[in-house]
Write a structure and sequence with these properties.
Elements (H helix, E strand, L loop, with lengths): L2 H13 L9 E3 L37 H7 L5 E3 L2 H5 L5 E3 L11 E5 L4 H12 L1
Parallel strand pairs: 1-2
Antiparallel strand pairs: 3-4
Helix pairs in contact: 1-2
Length: about 130
């Protein structure tokens, strides 16, 4: 159980009665796609083919169990982007950043247009 996430969600939920028209969302975690190591041990994410981890998203539950558990029973909505983003391992900046350091790849941030645009579409549909 991530006490930080649960604490923030609990506090936000307690504030919502003061703002009856406010909608609050918790965005689930964005996956990192490091292969053959982590960011500081030579990990890479220069895959050029999408869907390396499969081509299906099963929505029986969130892959971000802490976030899903934190919003359960609250008025906070879960914006669940983890599973669909996991399928797009080719969408990271990788070694193609303008400020890229040789031998280091950015496998956390995403190229635009791309995956974050899908997150925005899901958010817009919820509004």
């Amino acid at each position: 159980k991530n006490f930080t996430i649960h604490g923030v969600i609990k506090w936000l939920d307690a504030q919502l009665p003061r703002y009856p028209h406010l909608k609050v969302f918790y965005r689930s975690l964005s996956p990192r796609h490091f292969f053959n190591g982590e960011w500081n041990t030579g990990g890479t994410c220069n895959n050029k083919d999408p869907l390396a981890k499969g081509n299906r998203v099963f929505q029986n539950h969130s892959e971000d169990a802490d976030g899903e558990g934190a919003v359960k029973g609250t008025r906070i909505k879960l914006l669940d982007i983890t599973a669909l983003s996991r399928l797009r391992d080719e969408g990271h900046i990788s070694k193609y950043s303008i400020r890229a350091t040789p031998g280091v790849q950015d496998c956390l941030h995403w190229c635009l247009p791309g995956v974050p645009d899908t997150w925005n579409e899901i958010l817009a549909a919820q509004l």
